[in-house]
């Protein structure tokens, strides 16, 4: 969602910095910059997995994750997010064409719901997934893609599944799931080279171009 269908203006980094401060990590310090670099490199991964890597102990990781979710939620409630231009229209077109769209995220369910509410997207798609909805493993594992495939029963072959995202972890997840199209978009965290190296079959300017890509592939 963030970076692909949702423009959050760097709120992930802001929320992370707020969480890190609770552990006494001073903003602008070498430790803060090291941790922030890791957060940037792993955009798209389940956030609890990121905090487990950074803070080690499960208790600390859970505490940091809660602090992050609270900080991100407050920023969302403050009106700091917006749809990527053309994203809602793309979803509505795909739906009108008889396709099933699922929104996935590395955030926790509470944060995902806050984003959907802030955008008025609660009824935009029939299914939304976070890592906990797919057994607890987020990207780069393929679990959320496969959970969408199994739960919707929209297609009879995983190769008819399309994955779109803005991070290398999205691309890895799509490639590992066996999706027929894995489309990277340039509205978020990672550039064309990194998306392609991680398994993108196509790279688009934004998700607004996705319906046309699917139409061309089917033709």
TrEMBL record:
<dbReference type="InterPro" id="IPR023214">
    <property type="entry name" value="HAD_sf"/>
</dbReference>
<dbReference type="InterPro" id="IPR050155">
    <property type="entry name" value="HAD-like_hydrolase_sf"/>
</dbReference>
<dbReference type="InterPro" id="IPR036412">
    <property type="entry name" value="HAD-like_sf"/>
</dbReference>
<dbReference type="Pfam" id="PF00702">
    <property type="entry name" value="Hydrolase"/>
</dbReference>
<protein>
    <submittedName>
        <fullName>HAD hydrolase-like protein</fullName>
    </submittedName>
</protein>
């Amino acid at each position: 969602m963030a970076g692909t269908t949702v423009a959050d203006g760097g709120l992930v980094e802001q929320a992370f910095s707020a969480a890190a401060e609770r552990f006494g990590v001073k903003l602008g310090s070498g430790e803060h910059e090291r941790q922030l670099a890791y957060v940037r490199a792993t955009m798209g991964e389940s956030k609890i997995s990121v905090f487990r890597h950074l803070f080690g102990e499960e208790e600390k990781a859970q505490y940091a994750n809660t602090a992050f979710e609270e900080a991100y939620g407050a920023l969302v409630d403050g009106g700091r997010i917006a749809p990527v231009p053309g994203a809602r229209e793309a979803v509505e077109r795909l739906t009108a064409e008889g396709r099933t769209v699922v929104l996935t995220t590395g955030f926790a369910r509470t944060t995902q719901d806050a984003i959907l509410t802030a955008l008025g997207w609660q009824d935009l798609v029939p299914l939304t997934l976070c890592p906990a909805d797919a057994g607890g493993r987020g990207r780069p594992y393929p679990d959320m893609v496969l959970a969408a495939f199994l739960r919707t029963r929209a297609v009879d072959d995983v190769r008819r599944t399309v994955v779109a995202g803005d991070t290398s972890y999205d691309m890895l997840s799509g490639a590992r799931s066996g999706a027929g199209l894995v489309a990277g978009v340039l509205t978020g965290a990672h550039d064309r080279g990194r998306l392609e190296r991680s398994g993108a079959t196509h790279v688009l300017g934004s998700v607004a171009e996705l319906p046309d890509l699917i139409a061309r592939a089917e033709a």
